[in-house]
Design brief:
It contains 15 helices and 4 strands. The protein is mostly helical. A 4-stranded mixed beta sheet has the order 2-1-3-4, with helices on both faces. A hairpin with a 6-residue loop joins strand 3 and strand 4. The chain is elongated. It starts with 9 loop residues before the first helix and ends with a helix.
Length: about 400
């Protein structure tokens, strides 16, 4: 098909088509309803988790008949950094009954004949709780021994030189690792949904225009490549706005509820997700547009978009693999091969395992790939979008004329 003489300039044509696609999408009632529900789910789930998902998991220890022992357990727990819920119970029988009923994890029964004690548990004693109880009993025994020789605990502390252990970790644990992992998982899910959802929106829009013959009018004044990019840009802008809303609400709710404390990292991951969504969406959108041009009915879209979904699930699987094995050599290689960087790079940014030059290099490779695919997609689009009837095979659409 040769370009008509009245063809609009590329920039103007793309802007007009993009503006039209954006308005069509945001004027749909389903768009506002679905996004309102999604935003409520994001905020509501985070608020609910902050209220009910981070309950007090401290073991409960009941101490029978010895207030000094109860105080020793509390002091030892604070010193060891393993807090326990200490309660005083009336008798050994009450303690055993409370453990049997599940009201107490441990009933600590003092030994009247010495500084020892018996810990009553349902099945086994947690090692951390045992360490606290052992320390408490040792403290009480030391206090008894000091009293015998006429030395107070404060006098012993004053005469004892400080002995501190300094830990030199060769590979220190990241205190923000848990939040980084949560951010990575959230980015993975949202990126997959956004790219697939808006890619299919592009394909469905192409089929709708083709079946209604609207595309014939559009191509009388607009080049196929300009029409293709206009649809990609307009629908992609809707996806970007939607992703922006999700991120702002998610980060704001996380900070307000205290679930999220790594503000700089969260904002950095959010920015990376937006940038890589643009590249990943552009990569797949031009292919979805070409796939949509091959069919004349929306029911047949799945037959031409099947290979794209397989590629998307391959990206999804590689991303989950990265969450479990971030140092895998194969994943480092895949991070350079389009379209895998679109989902791997935001995860690497969230985990803090990628350098700036790696991000920039992968982005450049993705941009080149998108530019090449846009030309190939426009060729398929041009050769197929005006053919009504049977599905056009990919091989035929790509064949040079």
């Amino acid at each position: 098909m040769s370009a008509p003489s009245t063809t609009l300039p590329a920039r103007r044509a793309i802007a007009l088509v993009a503006r039209r696609e954006f308005r069509v999408q945001v004027h749909k009632r389903s768009f506002w309803v679905s996004n309102a529900i999604m935003l409520l789910l994001i905020a509501g789930s985070m608020i609910a988790f902050s209220l009910f998902g981070t309950g007090d998991d401290r073991p409960s220890v009941g101490v029978a008949g010895d207030p000094a022992l109860a105080a020793a357990v509390t002091s030892a727990a604070e010193r060891l950094g393993s807090p326990v819920d200490v309660r005083e119970i009336a008798s050994a029988g009450d303690g055993r009954a409370a453990v049997a009923a599940g009201d107490l994890d441990v009933a600590l029964l003092g030994d009247e004949s010495g500084p020892g004690a018996t810990a009553v548990v349902d099945s086994e004693l947690d090692p951390a709780t045992r360490a606290v109880l052992d320390a408490a009993l040792a403290d009480r025994a030391t206090g008894v021994g000091l009293a015998v020789v006429g030395v107070t605990p404060s006098q012993l502390a004053a005469a004892t030189p400080p002995a501190r252990l300094t830990v030199d970790a060769l590979d220190p644990t990241d205190p923000e690792a848990g939040q980084r992992s949560a951010l990575s998982f959230a980015v993975l899910i949202v990126m997959f949904m956004q790219i697939v959802g808006f890619g299919l929106t592009v394909a469905m829009g192409v089929v709708e225009e083709k079946s209604s013959r609207v595309v014939e009018l559009l191509l009388s004044t607009i080049r196929p490549l300009d029409l293709l990019w206009g649809k990609v840009v307009g629908i992609g802008a809707v996806g970007l706005v939607q992703l922006l809303l999700y991120g702002v609400v998610g980060i704001a709710t996380g900070l307000a509820t205290g679930l999220l404390t790594i503000t700089g990292t969260a904002v950095g991951v959010f920015g990376a997700a937006l940038a890589w969504f643009v590249l990943g969406y552009a990569f797949f959108a031009v292919l979805y547009a070409a796939a949509g041009s091959l069919v004349s009915r929306q029911e047949d879209v799945n037959s031409t978009t099947g290979p794209l979904m397989m590629l998307m699930f391959a990206m999804y699987g590689a991303s989950f693999w990265y969450l479990g094995s971030p140092d895998a050599t194969a994943l480092q290689i895949l991070s350079w091969i389009p379209p895998f960087p679109a989902m791997l790079m935001p995860l690497m940014v969230a985990q803090g395992t990628v350098s700036a030059w790696h991000v920039a290099g992968s982005a450049l490779v993705m941009i080149v790939a998108v530019a090449l695919l846009a030309r190939a997609g426009a060729r398929v689009y041009e050769r197929s979008v005006l053919r009504i009837g049977a599905t056009v095979p990919w091989r035929e659409a790509l064949r040079s004329r």
